[in-house]
Amino acid sequence: MTKDPVCGTQVDEKNNPPKSYYQGTEQTFCSQDCKQKFDRNPQQYVGQSRQQSQGQQSGQRQQSGQQSGQGQKTRQSGGGSGA
Description:
The protein is α+β, with helices and mostly antiparallel strands and 83 residues long. The protein has one domain. 58% of the residues lie in helices and 14% in strands. The protein has helices at residues 32-40, 42-80; strands at residues 2-3, 10-11, 19-22, 25-28. The protein has a two-stranded antiparallel ribbon with strand order 1-2. A two-stranded antiparallel ribbon has the order 3-4. Helix 1 (32-40) packs across helix 2 (42-80). It is globular. Mean pLDDT is 75; it is low at 53-57 and 71-77.
């Protein structure tokens, strides 16, 4: 299954869906209508997809940084009280 970059629908590639190629990447669509929208302005949809995935990666880094920062605070306060 892949995700239609225009509407976000999950597309089963076994059903021979419409496809386009943009910047060396195959894009799969749920309908001919979505394919035509993409073909008219592919950067609009590829840019959104990249921004979303970059945002998710950034969010994951922030979460892991917050978790490790919390652990450091606990260790520092725990180590200082024993002396």
